[in-house]
Amino acid sequence: MKPYEIKELEKRGFLDTMLSGKPEENAWKEIGNILAEAEHVCDVEPNALKKAASKWGVSFNERNTTRRSAIYRQLAEVVYEALVSKDDGNLQELKELAERLGLSPQLAQMANRGAKNVAYGNRCRGILAGTEKLDIHQLNDLFGYDYEEGLSARRSVFEEHFYEKFEKFEETQRYSLEDEEELTAVTEKLDVPFELKENLTAALIRFRNLWNAETQDLRPIKVQIPLADGEECYAGTNCGRCLKKMVEVDNSFFDRNRKFEADDTLAFKGNALDGQVKHEEQMIVEEIGYFFITNLRLIFASKHNAVQHAISDVTGADYKDNCIYYHLKDGADAVYKYSDDASECMFMIFNRVLRGEIHKA
């Protein structure tokens, strides 16, 4: 009988038995062997399992209810995995086994609850795999579950499926409409809400924006800035305009990696020890404003300034650390820094506009 298997009993010599007693584990092995050899529980004599245990000095009592419940649950999980109707004959097998193992109705009910939960989760996975013949509503009815009772198990199955898919989303940094439709179909099959943790939702929004910027038809958007005749805007977002400037860098002698050189100089001010101050050219954010990409211009507008670059004067661009370096025909670069969420999208949209991949009415 499934799921029991024949196991070899431990053998002890006469002296070992005298010193250590009979091996109690043999009692549980022999019970399993009896069940493995029987086609049905009703084929096992009512007192056969108790007698098998008593041969090894074990009696059914409160100290071993866990072991007996575990033996019962093995069969319960198999029964509920294959259950097809509420009057399935295998349910009677469970009742017969509970009696032969001396389990109270309460203990049998607890074991059934655990077995049903495991089997229910596996059958929900079967729904997604296409191996389960019942839909989720039929399965709930068969198990006697209402919406809430099986919700936790169904959510767990959905999360397993989602995280498996999410690995691909993270790898490709894309989340397409087809991906969303597939996940929505899974929630419908399992009758669960499409709810995710805030960080996962934010990640999916970012991956969707990247997918949109890369694949979807670029159409003009409405903006509040004046546009020329025939000019259309395709993207706009907050950004910072970057310029190269000379900045002071404190050459601290207290840097843990500092090595003193022969030409190092020291200066004292009162009780303070000063090192040399160097000037270095660095790219810094000069001002914050709003950036637009149109079919004719790149436009930056802040409270105090407005800068524009004709698309015809831009030869290409490079992307690094949320900054886009727009290469101009005169050899200079116009550099703008964007947010984590917007930078890659703006880079993709710019390149598509530059190539003329825009919607034309």
Structure, briefly:
43% of the residues lie in helices and 19% in strands.
Give the count of helical stretches. Answer: 11
Strand-residue fraction?
15-25%
First-last Cα distance: 71 Å
Poorly predicted runs are: 17-21
> Helix share of residues?
40-55%
Q: Give the tally of β-strands.
A: 9
Structural class: alpha+beta
- Reading the helices and strands in chain order gives HHHHHHHHHHEEEEEEEEEH
Computed over alpha carbons, the radius of gyration is 36 Å
Structure commentary:
With 361 residues, the protein is an alpha+beta fold. Helices cover 43% and strands 19% of the residues. It is built from 11 helices and 9 strands. It has a 7-stranded antiparallel β-sheet with strand order 6-5-4-1-9-8-7. Strands 2-3 form a two-stranded antiparallel ribbon. A hairpin with a 4-residue loop joins strand 8 and strand 9. The longest helix has 25 residues. The chain is elongated, with a radius of gyration of 36 Å. The protein starts with 13 loop residues before the first helix and ends in a 7-residue tail after the last helix. 22% of the residues are buried. About 1% of the residues have low confidence.
Kindly list the characteristics that best describe this protein:
alpha+beta, single chain, 43% helix, two-stranded antiparallel ribbon, elongated, seven-stranded antiparallel beta sheet, 361 residues
